[in-house]
Description:
Shape of chain B: globular
Structural class of chain A: alpha+beta
Largest sheet of chain B: none
Order of helices and strands of chain A: EEEHEEHEHHHEHEHEEHHEEEEEEHEE
Strand content of chain B: under 5%
Helix content of chain A: 25-40%
Number of strands of chain B: 0
Strand content of chain A: 25-35%
Oligomer: heterodimer
Largest sheet of chain A: 6 strands, mixed
Number of domains of chain B: 1
Amino acid sequence: MSIQVDHVTKRFGAFAVLNDVSLHVQDGELVALLGPSGCGKTTLLRILAGLERPDQGRIFLHGTEVTDRRITERRVGFVFQHYALFRHMTVAENVAFGLTVQPRVQRPSAARIQEKVCELLTLVQLQAMAGRYPSQLSGGQRQRVALARALAVEPKLLLLDEPFGALDAKVRKELRRWLRRLHDEVHITGILVTHDQEEALEVADRVVVMHQGNVEQIGTPDEVYERPASPFVCQFLGDVNVFHGRAVQERNVADLPPLPDEKRVTTVGVVGEHEVTFVRPHDLEVHRSRTHPSQLEATVRYVLTAGSRVWIELSTQDSMQAIEVELTKERYRELDLREGEIVFVHPRHRQVFKIPQS
Amino acid sequence: MSFILKQPSVLPGFALTLGFTLFYLGVIVLIPLSGLFVKTSTLPWEQFWGITTTPRAIASYQLTFGASFVGAIINGLFGSIIAWVLVRYQFPGRSAIDALVDLPFALPTAVSGITLAAIYSSNGWIGRFLEPLGIKVAFTPLGILVALTFIGLPFVVRTVQPVLQDLDKEVEEAAATLGANRWQTFRAVIVPELWPALLTGIAMAFARSVGEYGSVIFIAGNMPLKSEITPLLIMTKLEQYDYAGATALGVVMLVVSFVLALAINLLQWWSSTRHMNQ
């Protein structure tokens, strides 16, 4: 089911949680709403489900306006962060709930419901748990039950509100891969709300980055990561080194010298304007000796080894600014760096943004 | 599960606190109650049986327990509605109404009895409108029911209210997204959550009503066999210096109340742990 969000605004008191948000989701897509807490992503999801009403704007599901339709009429599956399972019902009863509350004429027979519950529990790999109560399950299992329960009514649209937020890192990773596979099997339009950029980039077909009630950027995971549309998107998606500077020539010059490869320089500014340059830690190249005249000279302050990656903190000679560099273990061994040594760095890739004069 | 009497804990003092608990309960509850049994045991069995099964006594048990039970059920229904309104809606005067609920607790029972009797008597504020309809409240068993409902109300509201407050709103929203209408959500999702607290509230209202004396005697009319409650019967016996007879009736009430309270507690325990069985 396609979704059209048309200029939606929602205020709680004087505070605009959603500020003229528009969004289009195609049939069968899995879209992530990504942003820090309080950016309005959950409110948008709740508006889609019919749990909140927008102050302005319209919602279309599959081309039909549903802005004033009740929740029960929208046929939307909703998965909550804290599962919201019915704790006095068994797993099977939870999953069957959406079917048993259907009007008598539509309701499948008891045998058919049982069969359906069994199918769904197989899908979420919880056949053995049918007779248990939610309190007897782990967090990951509970969330899978919640998902099966939402899928039981065969919704055209599945909305997931931070579904893995309350789980530990390992289970979260497992479940999001599983969710991706499930989505590929069931082919249901899905919207996933998350504040975890890794989750959004890994699972979604497209990512909607939100900030303070506004949509900052919509694009594929690669697009938003590689070509962020705003400083916020750049900083929110992963670690980044920030360099403030002023354009002194017809080409960006921040504190960091230009790249050896001139074609990669993004010129956004006019001479005299303030600019900010973002370089991801893994986009910095480190050498023991100067290989290009524009390289930045820096001192190694700390070396941190974390699993397969090595983090190095550098400080530049003149500004004492800390620069974080991420190296592979091989490259680190090759360089054989010690704290206090002098190195030369330059970015392979960077993002430059103008800062509006205030 | 093995029975562990003492577990290591940050705050020691298990022996001290348990000892104190037993001592305190002994002095405050157990000794007076066993006194009741000791006094009763001075009666020969036949005489005990004779005193406790007179038609007047039996009528009073029926009235006391019956009216208390019906009152507790009425409170269960309307108390839940009051708790619901107080928790779920914001409206002017909400805290005033919230405070009003406690009044039956705070008011001396005799005062509420006299007030109710005055209001429901045939020329009282409410009684005068009921009189033409053929409904007599004051000085009838119906009046007793009114008094017992009045004093039992806070128990239900105050036990259901916190549970309603803690009720996860998302569970209701989940039910709605699954297509359940309001009634289905209420019946299948909210009621099971409230049930244990509601049972506790009803049990407490019932227990309080069974022992109620002050408010009832003013509105009851106190006609033997018709509108005489057991506590009044006990008082009557005491006034005639028939201590053994009074304690015999007391023992009957105690045993019946205890059995009922136990039954309700078991029911409540069962309904709250049913979904957590290992």
